[in-house]
Design a protein that fits this description.
CATH superfamily of the largest domain: Type II secretion system (T2SS), domain F
Strand content: 5-15%
Distance between the termini: 66 Å
Oligomer: single chain
Number of domains: 3
Helix content: over 70%
């Protein structure tokens, strides 16, 4: 998925910049037109990670740590410019972090607002962070805005860490099982095939197929090694391509078994982002326009439709329900938030329910999948070993 900066004119003639995540430039232009923009210019902002695993940090710059330090120093009574100067002096030895903070200090000394200075580094500071800072500049509550962003960052990280932790052990099992199977097929089987050479008619069918593979591997080991190395290099490279990630994401979301959970994770992130923006004082239409870029491409038209409905005067809950961007619990919470004026808090609650459901599902999945995976790998490796030694067992039986 690629992020595009689309500059265009609204129906009222106002200039507007829209960030769109899309697979191609034409898709980004189509999404902008659906949002009611007359497109003037489209520029690529680089590849973006899938929404599930999106990070809030630029390469070499820890945004969460930066926000924590801002909260601590501003809470101690330092002014913003003094805080940035202090952090820039401390990180002067770090090429990336020191350079960024030094430029922020210089731009603020020239009279720019903090949010305007942050916008010069779009690869480091995400739009949600900048919007929270911009809203706090009007209200004078920068520390609470930073604390809300840190809670948002931490809550997103909990599910991400659960997924990573649950996938580490199965990934290690698959890697070790594949290595053992490759060793047997590419090293041991060719040697056994020479021992059984000339006895093909007396071998069981499964062993015969395995020995034929062994003879082929022995004669073409250079080709097999080259193919394995090419696959090891090509697979990680393919996963970095936006088209491959989009197709993989579409395949996962189309799955009846896992697609519903992925959709819940995407909706949870969408609700939490909306809650962060609304809690910072950003109007609901602007918040929707900003948060829709966090959704995958296939859900962005629905978010655009909901934004148009809100612009025309419908409530946020009804608009999201019409666009199929709600769950039954989320819809009731949104309507309660509209009645009591606590929409930001209700969006946080709406995001918490899917998070808990997903966490329980990951735990159940890990407990079930790991033993099944061990059984499958054991059966595969055991089957290869049995087919290797089965002719020896049969020969010993005939001699007896």
């Amino acid at each position: 998925m690629t992020t595009f900066n689309v500059r265009g004119l609204t129906a009222q003639g106002a200039l507007r910049l829209l960030r769109v995540s899309a697979a191609s430039r034409s898709d980004a232009e189509h999404a902008a037109r659906e949002a009611g923009l007359r497109v003037l210019d489209i520029q690529s902002a680089g590849f973006s990670r899938p929404a599930l695993f999106a990070s809030s940090t630029g390469g070499g710059f820890d945004l969460a740590l930066f926000a924590h330090e801002l909260v601590a120093l501003l809470g101690a009574g330092l002014s913003l410019i003094e805080t940035l100067e202090t952090l820039a002096e401390r990180q002067e030895g770090a090429a990336r972090g020191g350079s960024v903070l030094g430029q922020l200090v210089r731009r603020m000394q020239e009279g720019q607002a903090f949010s305007s200075a942050l916008r010069t580094f779009p690869a480091i500071f995400p739009e949600l962070f900048i919007a929270s800072i911009a809203a706090s500049e009007h209200t004078g509550e920068m520390v609470p805005a930073l604390q809300r962003y840190l809670r948002y960052h931490e809550q997103l990280g909990v599910i991400r860490q659960k997924i990573i932790s649950a996938s580490l052990y199965p990934a290690m099992l698959c890697a070790v099982g594949a290595a053992v199977a490759l060793f047997l097929l590419c090293f041991l089987v060719p040697r056994f095939s020479r021992v059984y050479e000339g006895m093909e008619d007396k071998l069981p069918v499964a062993s015969r197929w395995l020995m034929q593979w062994g003879l082929f591997a022995s004669a073409h080991w250079v080709l097999i090694a080259g193919l394995l190395i090419a696959a090891a290099v090509a697979l990680p490279f393919a996963l970095t391509r936006p088209g491959a990630r989009v197709r993989m994401g579409d395949a996962l979301q189309a799955s009846r078994w896992i697609g519903g959970r992925i959709r819940l994770m995407q909706l949870s992130r969408f609700y939490r982002s909306l809650g962060l923006l609304l809690g910072g004082g950003i109007p609901v239409v602007k918040a929707l326009n900003m948060a829709q870029g966090l959704l995958p491409l296939r859900l962005q038209p629905a978010a655009l439709s909901a934004t148009r409905d809100v612009t025309q005067g419908r409530s946020l809950g009804d608009s999201l329900q019409t666009a199929a961007l709600t769950t039954p619990v989320a819809l009731r919470l949104l309507r309660a938030g509209e009645r009591n004026g606590q929409m930001a808090e209700m969006l946080e609650q709406a995001a918490a329910f899917p998070d808990k459901e997903i966490a329980h599902w990951i735990d159940r999945f890990a407990r079930l999948f790991e033993p099944v995976l061990m059984l499958v790998i054991g059966l595969a490796i055991g089957g290869i070993v049995i087919m290797l030694y089965l002719p020896i067992f049969e020969l010993a039986g005939s001699l007896g």
